[in-house]
Write the structure tokens for this entry.
Amino acid sequence: LRHADLRHADLRHADLRRALLQGAYLQGADLRLTNLQAANLQAADLRIANLWDADLRDADLTGACFRDAWITGCWLTESQVMWLTLTGQLTSEQASVVKITQEVAA
């Protein structure tokens, strides 16, 4: 699925463990409750995607763009988050994820 065009795809509850999604276009995709454990999302475009309660443990998010994405409840334990882009209107829960992300990347 490298560089796949999955814009606005409905992937709710999908099992995408260890998926190779480098450079994938996932803008506006519905990834609520999706299992992305150990997935490779390097340089993936997740702008305005809904990742509510998605499981991103051990995922490689290097260079991924989460601009204006909904990330409340995401599991990011052990994820690689260098050069991750998180911007837009953030809730207090999302802001705490940004703080954790910045500390890990530093």
User: Anything to note?
Assistant: The two ends are 30 Å apart (CA to CA). The chain has a mean pLDDT of 80.
